[in-house]
Amino acid sequence: MHAIGSLVFALTAFLLLCPGNPVLAVADELRAAKTAFQQKDYDTAVRLLSALIDASPTQITAYELRAVAQGYRGHPEEALADYDYLAKQGKRKTGLLQPVCLGLLTNLLAYDQDLVRGAAVTALAELGTSDTQAALTAALRDPSARVRTFALQAAGRMGRAATLPAVRAAAGDHDATVRMAALSALGLSKDLSVVETVRPGLIDKDPIVQLVAREALIRLNQPQSVQPFLAAARDFSPAVRGAAMGILGRLKDPSALSVLVLGLHDPDASVRSFAAGALGDLGTMSAVADLVEALSDPDPYVRNFAAVSLGRLNAKPSIAALWGAVKDSDSLVRLAAAEALVKLGEGVAALVIHELLKDPDYGVRSAALGAMARSEPSRAMALALEALNDPAPRVRVAAVQALGRIGAKAAIPYLRRALLDKDLTVRAFAAGHLGSVAAGRKPKGDN
Question: Which of 45, 66, 235, 278 is a plausible cystine mate for 240, CB 3.0–4.6 Å?
Fold first, then answer.
């Protein structure tokens, strides 16, 4: 914890260099406070730091360290109170919000609900500082496979997949989903030192893990044939077929076009969805006509992915069909079509997105906020502020994410407010984005 350790050091040095300062009378409490903080006994650290502040109220560094300790205790109100006191004294340090937010996320990583821990580790990726390694490592060893998966994804986003031993160990996790996440993160690291960690995945007992391992090796510039993916796209298992098609799209191999187009007619709707999404990844205009046809698929998920892919392909010949999809019976299909139209230059389609912010389904409202942030960031700020009052936590999370990505420093007061939200998942994402914005970090993309 480099930044936090610096605070402790600064406090000690200040006291020792001021022989007339009354706080020297409680030097024993100072040393005990340092020890308690380093031993993660934050309750004791706060108590002792409070005694120091009572004895000498001008000790600015003591306020800073206490604010961070309050974060680790999971007390954002008290942490912000110390921050605001410093601001009133003309000592505001926006960078202080980052270690406070790290403390809050670390506290939430010990919460008893894996939903909260998963949100915390996902939000941790927004901070990206060297101080986050201990928290990330703890999440990588979480008892919940779901949380470990989120932690592996976060490690990949933070560029730490190849450097953390826990990520390499996860390639042998007992849970197949965790193994897939680990192999994917290692492949994206582009670090050749992980090749021998990835290679055993080729003989994994799970066929999808085998495919992910092969993809990872290709990304690590190891000689691998695309043929196994083409064969897997015809496997008897829909899950294997879908996974193979998703990988073929990401690899952007031209030989995959015919297989993916055929996948649009698969008897299993999930496979058709994978095929529609993969064609957007593949990036070839040759599939536009087939994707337009997929806008009439009986399954709404297929129609949704087809609309998204047409937008990604910048397929202007599909504009008329997408306007038809704006009238779809499914709200998420309407949203995907509207966002695709905005990408294609049909700005008026943003009105459809705006209308879907009022949809009775909270999932649609949250997705619409994300679409507005991507399509019309200048208008999304006001909409995100309004959504902070939405009754659904998921919508408030989407509002926080939008503010973190488009609001810059202007978002800080609102992210602070969300830090006190009654829902802990909202608090987690608020901490991640507040710490990131305060530190001036660039957004890392959607979670």
Answer: 235
* Helix, strand, coil distribution of the chain in percent, nearest 5: 75, 0, 25
Contact yes or no for 178/154 (Cβ under 8 A) = no
- The structure tokens listed for 73 are 């205790």
Long-range contacts of 320-324, Cβ-Cβ distance < 8 Å, separation of 24 or more: 321/292, 321/295, 322/295, 322/346, 323/349, 324/295
What's the pLDDT tens digit per position in 226-253? 999 999 999 999 999 999 999 999 999 8
User: Which among 417, 420, 381, 386 has a CA at the least distance from the CA of 402?
Assistant: 381
**Three-state DSSP state, 253:** coil
Find, among 71, 10, 76, 16, the residue nearest to 45 by Cα.
Answer: 71
Alpha carbons 10 and 159: distance in angstroms, whole number: 31
DSSP letter (8 states) at residue 305: H
CB neighbour list of residue 153: distance below 8 Å, 6 or more residues apart: 122, 125, 181, 185
The model's confidence at residue 209, banded by pLDDT at 50, 70 and 90, is: very high
Cα–chain-centroid distance for residue 405?
Answer: 12
Question: How large is the angle between the packed helices 393-406 and 377-387, nearest 10 degrees?
Answer: 140
C-alpha to C-alpha distance for 302 and 277, rounded to whole angstroms:
8
> According to the model, what pLDDT value does residue 23 have?
46
Backbone angles phi, psi at 142, to 5 degrees: -60, 145
| Phi, then psi, of 161 in degrees rounded to 5 | -60, -40
Of 98, 142, 100, 97, whose CA–CA distance to 121 is shortest? 142
What is the pTM assigned to this prediction?
A: 0.88
- Residue bearing tokens 């954002």: 76
Burial class (CB in 10 A: 0-12, 13-18, 19+), 320: exposed
CA distances from 78 to 60, 64, 72, 81, 424 (A): 16, 12, 11, 5, 17
The class of domain 2-92 in CATH terms is mainly alpha
C-alpha to C-alpha distance for 414 and 424, rounded to whole angstroms: 16
